[in-house]
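Problem 12. The chain below contains 171 residues. Write out its predicted structure in token notation.
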Amino acid sequence: MADLPLILRHEHAADLPSIEKLHERAFGPGRFAKTAYRLREGVDPVPTLSFVALVGTLIVGSIRLTPILVGQTTALLLGPLAVEQAFSSIGIGMSLVARAVETARGEGHRLIFLVGDEPFYSRAGFKVMPFNRVEMPGPVDPRRLLVLELAEGALEDVAGRISGIKRSVAA
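Solution.
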């Protein structure tokens, strides 16, 4: 990736059509039926935690974090993370994850959850969520429910059902 002129920046409203097309190519039409997508329905991603990766003016990757509740604990849900197929396996996805995690930590967030592949996300510190402590609102392989503590001990008393937090874009 050192030879690639990659720019990571916050997502802008004008990026939305390109991001939606990226998600369509990366995940297909079945993405809307997945539990993580359903959990994000009607919930706005956190603007300061939504990033795109660009090569020139082309959006080649995108990441978003969305507010959730786990029982009574506020947390974030990472995803979707998408990278254009032609630019996969060169570090763009992990660069986006690192930027989002670093920013979330800097903003004082304490936990990030996601549904994904542990071998990939473990490089950013994510671990499999201890079984039978949290419940997703739909079917999820418990080995794919991952968590990252941004503050030591943040996961200690967390338990319950995961739900989205409706956010207002009006300030």
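Discussion. The longest helix spans residues 92-106. Students who got a different answer should revisit the alignment rule from Section 12.3.
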